[in-house]
Amino acid sequence: MATYRLPTLVLLLLPVGLPAQTPAERYEPVFEQLRQLTPRGDRLAVVHDLTLRRDVIKFHLEDGWISLATPVAGRTVAAVFVGHGSVSFVPPSVVERAQVKRVLGDSVIDSRITAAAFVFTDSTLAELEHHLTFNEASMPPGLAGPLGDLLDHLIDGRMRLVTQPTLMAALLNARENGFFYGHVKREHGEDVMLMVDPMDEEPVELLRGGKERGEKFQVVSEVRREEDRADTTTVAAGQREPFQLDEYRVDATVAKNLTFSATVTVRLIARQEGQRWVPFWLFSEMRIDSIGGAADSSFRDKDSPELWVRLRTPLRGGDSAVVRVSYHGDLIGFGSVMRGVLPKEYNPDLPAALDQWLFVKTTQTWFPRYGSPPQPADMDLTFHTPRRYHFASIGRLLETHTEGDVLTTHWVTERPTDQACFNLGEFDEVKLGPVTVQVNSDAHRQLSLLLFGQRDPGGDVGRDVATSLAFFTGMYGAPLFQSYTATEVPFFYGQAFPGLMYLSVATFQTLDQSGFEEMFRAHEVAHQWWGIGVEPAGYRDAWLSEGFAEFSALWFMQLRLRDNDKFFKKLRNTRRDIRARRNNAPPIALGYRVGDTGLPEDYQTIVYEKGAWVVHMLRNLMLDLRTMNEDRFRAMMQDFYVQYRGRRAATRDFQRVVEEHMGMAMDWFFDEWVNGTEIPTYILSWKAEPDSGGRYRLHLRVRQEDAPDAFIMPVPLEIQFADSTHALVRVNVHGPFVEAAIQVPAEPTKLTLNPLESVLAEIRTESWR
Predict the structure, then answer these.
(1) To which H or E segment does residue 674 belong?
(2) Which 8-state DSSP code applies to residue 109?
(3) Which own/partner pairs from 470-476 qualify as long-range (CB within 8 Å, at least 24 positions apart)?
(4) What is the rounded CA–CA span in Å between residue 578 and residue 166?
(5) DSSP code of residue 663
(6) Phi and psi of 439, rounded to 5°?
(7) Nearest partner of 197 among 212, 182, 217, 215, judged by Cα
(8) How far apart are CA 56 and CA 43, in angstroms?
(9) Distance between terminal CA atoms of the chain?
(10) Is residue 250 a contact partner of residue 384, using CB atoms and an 8 Å limit?
(11) Residues 123, 13: contact at Cβ < 8 Å?
(12) Type and span of the H or E element at 269
């Protein structure tokens, strides 16, 4: 009996517009309608053999029912399917396929499904209505569940925010912006979500449910659209957003009681038509006092970091608007490091005068931020602070004056930035050339009653900061700014901003002699070159900031202390950390995503530590083993910095500069160490036999394990001879093993593979056989 099959319907993103609508007047009704989405019994359609494609995402709905959902802001933006079908997600790159396998157990998604819910602000509705007939019918069972699961991951009801702002922006602005999101119920395996978010750097995404408390989802894989994948450039932050951020003017006050208040004016330029609602991010402890300028209202739920501002009228493309936001709140913290680090039983015996600190509770959202990631902009900053405190900010200080007990300072940035913060406290200041160090000397006197400490913390730290600044200037080139402030914070981390560095209280107190503190200080200084001087082009290029800064700090520590033992010990320690995670952690090429789906500390291990190892290996590849001259490496690093100073650079840009200085293609190196995760083990064996004329024939073999056969790496080998001389050569290790026989001038007594820790590898020896 012949079986008739309906032809497959392939739905593509077509330029089908929505009926003209006006932007929403208020946020709350739109949010509530989205949160209460339900299937509609009067908008049901039978589905047979329907295929929907979104780039590398493919839904095949073999048979079942689709129900459109209740409208949001007068639009149908959701649908739900129950029945039989499949979903596939095939990442186009080796790196992303490996990541999907690492997280979900297979390199692609190709799963049978029983249900799927969709929300969209693209052409999906028009396409569905074109290919399907919707009527009133009895509601099939199981429609509500998938839609509820979608909303559970998409909506934060407590703070009344949507986890995907691109969706909410389309609903509030009544625009079709290309957003698509599907929540899939698989027959086997956990639910997955597939999304196209045109505002993201890589819009096509595979997600799964969050694994940590309060986490709605995790990103498993992200890729560019097909039409963009051949493009080797990375779109700058802001070029995808509806608005271009042009300028900030900040007028902020820290009162005597430490209450913070500010009025911020933001100048925006519309990139797209019809934009009326603008999303900002602002610290949740800030309370809005007023909205003004071109804006007439806003929405922000209690404890939410999201602030939606409504413009008086929608903007046309190219129009500009100035938004004014006045707010206040608990931004400046006050506390004691001593109370935080000592056990409770010590408290009764603590000195009466504890160490006292001020600190900024957030360095990111103390002012309204726009864009994800935040866009850079010119900044004009005025601060009014109590005169008793020393103050520091990013930017160039234009003027300062005192009136009564209030110190007013005015700063401007010398170039657009997306990194802005300040600090204040009861500091002493140490000036060393272009460097000013702010140190809480009184707090350290209190801490030293119970903890050993440095005799001159400001001077000791300041000398390392000034020396590393000079060192990197000589090695890389001139930094962007003329003066720098290193300011102490009561935390155990550092952070760099343009011309401003946060340094931990620990680095001012500790007597550590391992070289760690020299590295810590130099790392934050190095960000003035890597991360600020040269900005990573995209999230995958994060190692060009953190890995380069970590290598720079390691290099500085080696030469500053003139202590190779500490240098090699640091390399060995980080090698141990990297090897321990080599089979589980993602590669450097995943950038900021490295810590998202594994251990949080993977980001430090891979992006910082392995990133530093990659630069260290290039240093050794360019090393002249006969003279130990490093001029080629220094020239390469300086060339890269000078070419991209004040600009954005991607890994491929760095690779191009490396290739110019190496005189050869370096795809193999970057594929192995940046895109890959293998850490090889090399096993050396050798024997020597007398040859003619007092020479010897040296037979050597290097076996390679824990890496694929295609893995290749030149590895230095040191040969020590009976006459107390030695030689350094490179062995190109490729495949399961390499063997060589070479004539040497004297009897070899010892062979050491990788003596300079030139390669991130484990080394073993075995007897010749």
Answers:
(1) none
(2) E
(3) 471/522, 471/556, 471/559, 471/560, 472/522, 472/525, 472/526, 472/528, 472/529, 472/552, 472/556, 475/552, 475/555, 475/634, 475/637, 475/638, 476/529, 476/533, 476/637, 476/638, 476/641
(4) 37
(5) T
(6) -130, 140
(7) 182
(8) 29
(9) 71
(10) no
(11) yes
(12) strand 260-270
The CA-based dihedral angle spanning residues 50, 51, 54, 59, taken in that order and rounded to the nearest 10 degrees: 90
Residue closest to 57 by CA, chosen among 102, 5, 7, 120? 120
Query: Exposed (0-12), middle (13-18) or buried (19+): which is 189, by Cβ within 10 Å?
Result: middle
Supply the mean pLDDT for the chain.
93
- Residue 66 makes CB contacts below 8 A (sequence gap 6+) with 44, 45, 47, 79, 80, 81, 128, 132
Contacts of 573 (CB under 8 A, 6+ apart): none
Tokens of 769: 């056989």
User: Which tokens hold the place of 251?
Assistant: 């007028």
CA distances from 157 to 27, 29, 216, 234, 269 (A): 14, 13, 12, 35, 32
Q: Rounded to the nearest 10 degrees, what angle do helices 651-662 and 631-644 cross at?
A: 140
Confidence at residue 455, expressed as pLDDT on a 0 to 100 scale: 82
DSSP assignments along 453-468, one per residue: --SSHHHHHHHHHHHH
Q: 366: which 2 tokens?
A: 């103390």
Q: Give me the helix-helix angle, 631-644 and 611-621, nearest 10°.
A: 130
Mean pLDDT in consecutive groups of 10 residues from the start of the chain, 769 residues: 33 42 94 97 96 96 97 97 97 96 95 98 93 94 96 94 96 95 96 96 95 89 91 67 96 97 97 94 97 97 95 94 98 81 54 75 97 94 97 97 97 96 96 96 83 84 97 97 96 96 94 92 98 97 98 96 95 96 93 90 97 98 96 98 97 98 97 97 96 93 96 97 95 96 95 97 95
Strands 435-439 and 484-489 come out as parallel
In sequence order, the 6+-apart residues with CB closer than 8 A to the CB of 3 are none
**pTM, to two decimals:** 0.93
CA neighbours within 13 Å on the CB side: how many for 266? 26
Q: Which residue(s) pair with 118 in the sheet?
A: 79, 182
d(CA 695, CA 744): 6
Distance CA 436, CA 484 (A): 6
> Residue 288: in which H helix or E strand, if any?
strand 286-293
Is the Cα dihedral 203, 209, 211, 216 positive or negative?
A: positive
Are 59 and 87 in contact by the 8 Å Cβ rule? The answer is: yes
Write down the pLDDT at residue 17.
Answer: 41
- Planar angle of CA 188, 193, 195, nearest 5 degrees: 145
Q: What is the distance of C-alpha 70 from the center of its chain?
A: 37
Whether the ω angle into residue 479 lies within 30 degrees of 0, i.e. cis, is no
Token duo for residue 208:
């799964």
Q: How many residues in total does the chain contain?
A: 769
CB 582 within 8 A of CB 609: no
Token pair for 416: 């657009």
Residue 417 backbone phi and psi in degrees, to 5: -145, 155
Q: What is the pLDDT of residue 679?
A: 97
In the block, residue with structure tokens 């080394």:
763
User: What are the backbone angles phi and psi of residue 652, rounded to the nearest 5°?
Assistant: -65, -30
Please report where in the chains the tokens 């990133």 appear, as a residue.
611
Question: For tokens 């240093």, what's the residue?
Answer: 619
Q: Where are the alpha helices (DSSP H) in 68-205?
A: 94-104, 124-131, 144-154, 165-173
CA distance 479 to 435: 13
Closest CA to 106 of 114, 92, 96, 115: 96
- CB burial of residue 732 (10 Å; 0-12, 13-18, 19+): exposed
Q: Is 746 within 8 Å of 722 (Cβ atoms)?
A: yes
Q: Can you give the pLDDT at residue 448?
A: 77
CA distance linking residue 101 with residue 104, whole number of Å: 5
Distance of CA 162 to the CA centre of its chain: 22
CA–CA separation, 271 vs 242, rounded Å? 5
Structure tokens belonging to residue 132: 């399907």
